[in-house]
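Worked problem 6 (solution included).
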Amino acid sequence: MDDQNKNLIFATVLSFIVILGWFVLFPPPETETITDPAATQQVTDATSTEAVVPSSAGAADNVTDASDEATAALEEAPRIPVETARISGSISLLGGRVDDLHLKDYNTTIEDDAPIVSLLSPAGTPDAYYALYGWAPGAGIAPEQVPGPNTLWTLSQGETLSVETPVTLTWDNDAGQLFSRTISIDENYMFKIEQKVENTSENSVSLAPYGLIARHGIPSDAQNFFILHEGLVAMNNGELLETAWDDIPELDVVNGVPSKRIDGVTNGWIGFTGHYFMTNLIPDPAQPTRLSVKYLPRTEIFQTESVMPTQTVAGGQTATVTTQLFAGAKEWEILRDYEAQGVYKFIDSIDWGWFFFLTKPIFWVLHHLNLLIGNMGVAIIGLTLLIKALLFPLAYKSYVSMAKMKELQPQMEKLKKDAGDDRQKLQQGMMELYKREKVNPAAGCLPILMQIPIFFSLYKVIFVTLELRHAPFFGPFQDLSAPDPTSIFNFYGLLPWAAPEAGTVLALVFIGILPLLLGISMFLQQKLNPAPTDPTQQMIFAWMPWVFMFMLGGFASGLVVYWIANNTITFTQQYLIMRSQGYKPDILGNIKGSMKFGRKGDPK
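Solution. The predicted structure is:
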């Protein structure tokens, strides 16, 4: 086996193993959970014990029949409508809970009659998910004298929460403290929560403002896929913290509850993230805040908390604290704008993954190409052209080296014949030949090796970013984040039955148009060179395009579009470079020649 074939086999096998055994070769980093740093600042009042946030579990106690679902929960207490250009829903006066939120710009599927996405839902509904705010009692005030999850607030100002009209809730504890909460919202997904307490008594009181997000059980639509993080996401002064849903109940038990926390965070936020949507508590960055996550086993509730420093309010004084709540879609431009407005590293709430140094710039280019072109599929092809242009100097050297290797074939065969069974003599002769002719036998592997991290990073971008969700290309390809919807099974829609469901064995076997084009493009690219004479090599090369065709058939169609474009451009580059070096590839002859080899590799 000559060195050229060895290198080609090496590159082929390496690429194949990496794609199949992605996780084995490139495991994602272990996500870091919130830990208790040593000597952290305690958010306490000088004369009181540490503020304790009440459990959100009580918010579900009033709903005993979950089968009534949203109707009973929504009618449980008076509600304030929420209506903007992008969201709709309501806020319950019971606890002042933000617990009914729908995203107008997003549908659950690409079908015309698909319902819009529901992000938050009240206690008592499946996948209950909501945000709560209140005050934790300190010195001079009893727990029942502060507003909590089941406090019934009064709407004192406003009727509908909109961009132009905030609403104000009030509650009097009949003990000398008047609480108010003003809620406003911007044109996108950011709520501003202003909490105020006016102490009309003669005595000082101490209390700590808090916010929490509660999620009842693991979401039913959780992907549970290794490439995607879902669960806790938080920022601690520049350090991104992530814990998957399944790992939160495994945290260290504190006071009978699995939980972890960080104290003294001044640039941070905390919440829960899904595939494309999330909620986050965003405290005032100027205030040292306690961030924590816990799991309540009895009610199976996941809960994140943001507790600000304890306030001591003297008689006749007023204390005010303002925080933010993000509840919406993980749109790159929106998160970037919020980051520019002071939400520290908010763009990192998108799961960029281990190859973030590639996924971030790849997405940036793809996003702006889509804005320029207006079609995400064409933008992916444009991205492929840019990547190939950047790698062209390396590809040029590689293809020139491969063309020279073809010219050296007669001399290499002569060296083999002269060396006989003396492998050391053969290797020395080969090295002298390569050095004399200035040929790098490994150059052919470099373009393939460079493509591996790019391929993974683009896969990550297509799978996790919202901008690729339901992004159309043309014809039947209306969601580039989903597998090819066409199938040989129904002859691409001409026969009167549906194609196999994505993810099934039938869908893998009865592949669509894009995987077929992928296999053909790989096959033609392979035929730029004659088939190897070794039977084992010949078999590997013969099967490789079709194995990849079936293997990548279930991937996102946007990724397959990239791979087809990459193969087509590579074919064109290699063909032109080989011609420029005096070697004319005989594609048809190579195809015919590959069909004439016998079992021993000799032409018939």
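Discussion: The chain has two domains: 3-23+361-594, 29-352.
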